[in-house]
Design brief:
3 domains, Helicase, Ruva Protein, domain 3, five-stranded parallel β-sheet, Rossmann fold, alpha/beta, 306 residues
Length: 306
């Protein structure tokens, strides 16, 4: 079976990881040298390397295997799971100096589960360290934020992003032309993981072929925006409900933020758009019908400004 490129080319040491902020690299290096870390919250856009950095850090600390618990919180996110598995793990003494509980995609955790974690962090602060990753840190309750060192993972510069993808294609001996590669980059940037997956999926013959319309949601987003801009509000909402699933809402909000030029060219236009998008992100956690929230965001973004 062919190995996934996202795993094959995932860096496993600090030397292979690209930091956008030198001070962050110095901080992580110090943790590794000291063989100790605080509770951490790694945040950033999907595919920017949050989980990779967490695993590099865990591996570099040379912890005993039985002192590390890794959880995908998008699948196991209720209070019962916190009580049954995480509490049991945290409550036993470590084999080494301390234990690490790594909760990937912690923004999927329910509010009750996060409240339960707060209690565990307090009870076992001498023997357990927690690492959380989150695409949307506003979904993490303040009590966890205050107990963690925040660590925002900036997206790669688009030139560095393109270089990374091109290097993988060259290593895999896949033929490609730069305009086509740029289409891939512009479609999924800053999600490096998604870009590599799409490139691998579309290069089985040894030649990178164009994306089909159904391979990424961005084409649907563009169609919806065009309808809203044309004033076809009802048709736009119908298209939105038919093509976008509730669990894609956060991705749409991120897409709107990553494409600020769609909402205006001036800095004032972009600042106004950021306020609208930020409000949509906050409301996303509370509305019962997320497509209504997204529809309202698009209406505000595309309506003429007085």
């Amino acid at each position: 079976m062919q190995e996934l490129w996202t795993e094959k080319y995932r860096p496993d040491t600090l030397d292979g990881y690209v930091f956008r902020d030198e001070s962050q690299k110095e901080q992580v290096t110090k943790w590794i040298n000291d063989k100790s870390i605080p509770n951490c919250l790694f945040s950033g856009a999907p595919g920017t390397g949050k989980s990779t950095l967490a695993r590099i850090l865990i591996n570099s600390l040379d912890l005993i295997k039985h002192d590390v618990l890794e959880i995908n919180a998008s699948r196991e996110n209720g209070i019962d799971f916190i009580r049954d598995k995480i509490s049991t793990f945290a409550g036993t003494l470590p084999f080494g100096d301390f234990k690490i509980i790594f909760l990937d995609e912690a923004d999927f955790l329910s509010a009750n589960a996060q409240a339960g974690l707060r209690g565990l962090m307090e009870s076992y602060h001498k023997t357990v360290r927690f690492i959380y990753t989150a695409n949307y840190p506003h979904k993490i309750i303040p009590a966890l934020h205050s107990r963690c060192q925040g660590f925002h993972i900036e997206k790669l510069d688009i030139t560095e992003f393109t270089t990374r993808v091109a290097e993988v294609l060259l290593t895999e001996e896949v033929q490609f032309d730069l305009p086509l590669l740029d289409e891939y980059i512009n479609t999924v940037y800053p999600d490096l993981r998604k870009c590599l997956n799409l490139c691998q999926m579309n290069s089985g013959s040894g030649v990178l072929v164009p994306l089909s319309n159904g391979e990424t949601g961005s084409a649907t987003y563009d169609d919806v925006v065009a309808l809203f801009k044309a004033g076809n509000i009802q048709e736009a909402r119908t298209t939105l409900c038919q093509n976008i699933q509730p669990d894609e809402v956060d991705g749409i909000i991120r897409w709107a933020y990553d494409h600020l030029s769609l909402w205006g060219e001036t800095s004032e236009d972009k600042d106004y758009a950021i306020k609208i998008i930020r409000n949509a992100a906050v409301n996303a956690s509370f509305v019962a019908d997320p497509e209504i929230n997204i529809s309202a965001m698009f209406v505000e973004l595309t309506e003429p400004k007085e």
